[in-house]
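Schema walk-through. Below, the input block comes first and the output block second. Nothing else is stored per chain. Lengths vary across the set, and this one has 48 residues.
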Amino acid sequence: MFPHPMQITFATPALIFPAISLLLLAYTNKFLAIASMYASQKAVRFSE
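--- output ---
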């Protein structure tokens, strides 16, 4: 049924795990940027 079984070597996790942490870091920075924009807009709205 499967002529070529997928082979996972030790290099595969070594490439995947840093990519996961970099993705999480990117989403964290994106969330913090959006949160700071929201907070600054809220501060401007309530100061008027």
